[in-house]
Amino acid sequence: MTTQKQLPGASSAGSATSFKIPNMDCRNEEAAIRARLAEIPGVESLAFDLPQRRLTVVHTLATVQPLLDALTGIGMKAILEVSPNADTSSSCGAPCASSCGAARIATSTAAFTVSNMDCRDEEKAIRARLEGLDGVKGLSFDFPTRRLEVSHTLPSSESILTQLREIGMDARLAGAVVAPAATPVAKVPPPDNAISACCPCGTSTTTLSRSATGNTTQFVITNMDCPTEEALIRKRLGRVEGVDQLDFDLINRRLAVQHRLGDPAPVLDALRDIGMKATVEREAGASPKGQAIYLIEKMDCPTEEALLRKALEGLPGVTALQFDLLSRKLTVAHTLDDLAPVTAAIGRLGMSPVLQDSSQPAPPVTREFGSGISKTQWLKMGAAGVLALGAEAMAFAGLGETSLPVVGASLAAIALGGVETLKKGWIALRTLSLNMNLLMTIAVIGAALIGQWPEAAVVIWLFAIAEMIEALSLDRARNAIRSLMELAPETALVKQPDGRWEEVKAETVELGALVRVRPGERIALDGVVQSGSSAVNQAPITGESMPVAKQVGDTVFAGTINERGTLEFEVRSRKGNTTLDRIARSVQEAQGQRAPTQRFVDQFASIYTPVVFALAVGIAVIPPLFFGGVWFDWAYKALVMLVIACPCALVISTPVTVVSGLAAAARRGILVKGGLYLEQGRLLRAVALDKTGTLTHGRPALTDNLPIGELSPAQALHIAASIDALSEHPVATAIVRAYGDQPHADVQNFEALAGRGVKGDIAGQTYYIGNQRLATELGVASEAVKAQLEQLEAQAKTAVVLSTDKVALAVLAVADTVRDSSMEAVASLKRLGVEPVMLTGDNSKTAAAVAALVGITDARGDLLPQDKLEAIEKLAAQGPVGMVGDGVNDAPALAKSNIGFAMGAAGTDTAIETADVALMQDDLRKLPEFIALSRRVGGVLKANIAFAIGTKVIFMVLAFTGHASLWLAILADMGASLVVVFNGLRLLRSSKPEDRSHGA
């Protein structure tokens, strides 16, 4: 899938240059690249091919060096590509040509089979480890076949194999071939001084990745909500030719399939073949700009066409409709930036539209499923319970376990409460998937075969009840994310062209519209205040406990609450693109990624289940055959062991815990971009902090006002602010801001004195405000004045002198002030055992002064971006390290750190998209709060795993010694599952700030 965007002012007359960017594989990197290259004059348009990791830039630059510098500056490993038809013989000198040839001959490709590589988390871990390895030139991933190809110039592939195994990848060498001499292979670009003199030799014109269209189809699978179904789907779709990648969202029952198929029918057939109730929610075939194509399965006659015309023709931005009833397609010509109003209008008609347009974002939260358990299901399950327990009671009363009434009641109970489990067990058997449904099916059938009909009925009924309770428990985690979206109201009070205020659907409000929000109401959309003042509760977005004052020019966010006063604001983000929407989308995407512990649990379960299954078979067969055991007794023990072997509690514990942790973090104004970072947070040993904007406010403020002589501080500030109001210098701005809204004196003959200061006349007297050089020139820099200036400058402050041409009147000092929260945050980090380190480009004296104020002992100043990168590398060598920045600046250092944090990300698209963890508020205390939450999550995960495995071990011993029955085993399994689920859900509970500052 290739996306192209024309930059403002482009003429489309430039030349095209392509770059291979190995570490560009998602929208985060695309957003960062767009923002950076848009700053370069001469860049006209950008075309991104994320599956192939290729960027094409149309530009009018004389050389591509500025593009390479810009990409490298934001951490992108850009490799210039050469056209395969280019004639390099005339442009490359002999030395270059020979080195190109050498690069071609020496490069080979090694293929590895990595059995536990099946998602983006593993890809990211492999890239992080291998791309920094000397000699590795390119990586190609094939998830369905779990194949990794590495282009390299190493003497052997053993070092790559070692690196893969060190990060837990179950890798083995599948083969290695020398790359053909005619095929250039990707390599690191030549040095900067060689690019203009030599062609970019050795750069790649091809990619190891197989050709893919990049089509992505999103499915809603209403009966997919646990890792068992995920494993079954992975196995089945892995055999469908043309399927490249699977991205699961269990909490919202979504599956995104990247494929090279003409249509998604084979995927639908495969899903339905294994009992998955799948429907297409969204397809991503490209559409022209200004045109959207919908597939509407329920549109097949003029009646539906008339309904759609009536609903859509009046919508703002919709210019034309074209209906194709035979194909059930509707083409909408529009001028909208966001198609949410159109999609919503069709959805309100009950027509279930499928948007076939890759350029539009997916809905932030999936449709509402409710609890997924109907009244009919509850009634059937109640009847099944009565029958199963009735059969057990009849057998206990002496009727016999194989008597007709007992068998009849048991069969009825199984039919009412266990058919779905038996169906799933049959599907698992057909697909050779050894999951809990198959184990339970074998146990129930085995119990019936040995005449234990009542126990068979009770077991399958208890298992079905456990499944239903688990589903309800998962709904709580699911709703924790969905509740984020419910914070924003569905309607907004909008000013109409005739001056009236009218309540309209929020999704129909256009950019630039004026919205009024009254006291006590929630704000529907992001915007900027145009009139009024109030206090707004921003806790849903930033986690702030106190309302924030808002006045003209301030930003307000959707989902926040207007406490008092009426505000009128101009809309800056449409419904679907607000900060709240982006938070919900990010949390949803994050929970779809498997955390390291979850990958470990899945791998453990894949080994544990077949081992226990084999053990159960051995227990059933070996004692009767070789030791004269009673078949009935040992077969019963084996069935009990099969029930105990269900890894449900173990497998379900991690996703619930991770989702609960992500949702809990979002409630606190901490946006975590994946379970990987949520778990890694507890491992951090150091955090690198920038000074400006992180520890300090990022803007100068007046810190000292020291009169000399008869003037009072207020009089000195009045004169200084009146003159400085005519200057744009940052020091002047700080002095004027400190003076506030008070009236200024009338200033005549204002003049800026280059490099020294300013002067102006007030009431016939000429006043000067400037640095020590100006004071010396005027002859007013006495020893006392110089001493004060030196003392203030030693404190990393910028000092100026207010004077006449004869005498100094006052010394004023300006500095970037430290945030009130910084000292507390640094102290909290130290209590958690995390070492804070300051990395700043400011001078060392300033760095030392600020560090002393906040309590940091390791402060490093005068650092360029590459110096910060080196500092991060050294810290990372000692243990996991985090880096706090703004998500764009210091990109190389952020990329090199284990976790990149963005401060004050609320309302900032790029920061939310690019950071690993976004702290929505400008409050550094959120950082130790995140680490403490990460430790709590880690503690819960360990406790759940230990409890689940411990329960299994205890009951296996009981089963082997004959002290556990089938129904007791299923009760234990059900109880363990519920315990770990509810233990994970504990993370959703609010805790006091003082509780969150400590470990797990």
Describe the structure.
Helix 15 (453-486) packs antiparallel against helix 17, helix 19 (631-645) packs antiparallel against helix 32 and helix 32 runs antiparallel to helix 33. Among the domains are: 2-80, Alpha-Beta Plaits (2-Layer Sandwich), CATH 3.30.70; 94-195, Alpha-Beta Plaits (2-Layer Sandwich); 215-356, 2-Layer Sandwich (Alpha-Beta Plaits); 491-573, Calcium-transporting ATPase, cytoplasmic transduction domain A (Distorted Sandwich), CATH 2.70.150.10; 657-695 and 819-935, Rossmann fold; 698-817, Calcium-transporting ATPase, cytoplasmic domain N, CATH 3.40.1110. It is built from 34 helices and 39 strands. It is 44% helix and 22% strand. Mean pLDDT is 75; it is low at 8-12, 83-106, 176-214, 358-371 and 991-1000. The longest helix is centred in the C-terminal third of the chain and has 35 residues, at 926-960. The strands form seven sheets. The chain has an eight-stranded mixed β-sheet with strand order 11-12-10-13-17-14-16-15, with helices on both faces. The chain has 1000 residues and is of the alpha+beta class. This is P-type Zn(2+) transporter.
